[in-house]
Amino acid sequence: MARDFAAATNTIPIVSTLSEAQRQGVVASLARPGGNVTGVSNDAGIEIWGKRLQILKETVPSASRVAYLAVRESWEGAEGQELRETSHRLDISLIGMPLQEATALEFQRVFTSEVVPSGLEALIVSGAGGTWAHRQLIVELAEKNRLPAMHPYREFVELGGLMAYATDLGDVFRRIADTVHQVLNGTKPAEIPINQPTKFEFVVNLKAARAINLTFPPALLARADEVIE
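Below the sequence we write its predicted structure tokens.
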């Protein structure tokens, strides 16, 4: 979305959560954005997606076919590429389930007509393209179809999702507010560095695990930052 706004104006200051901002050409660099766009990265680099897939594989070692639930832009972009590369190293067949649009009907259609009939064994959920707005539905569909799922944010886990390896969104939004404050006080967006998160949480939900008859490996469970009973 920040890319669309940046294409519409090069004068109005834009403060946004960003992903792949430099790779997409939205900013010149994270340290000195150089234009009218700045903000806070909502991850710490695209490598976090490889880490998420690795944890999912540790959770379900037998999984060889994993669905990636995302809008087409994410599947075809750097996020999908990182996941594909990691899947090769982990000997996983990553199956893209690109959504035509991020609506409740589309999520239901993809699960009903693509995810379930394909016999997939686990699910990784993108953090882009409306998944946040439909997080409750996604959690319910994953549980209904007994799919172990790696979610992009802890809020999915609080709603009953299995697990998430994620940044602290509260910290991200506090940084956004600080950036807006700087802009309102006259600092140019071009001069405000784009902050990247430094805190990550691995959150698991044991109730969700029991609902799909899954047992977390003890060594992995010991690494969790928070265990929801």
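The mean pLDDT is 88.
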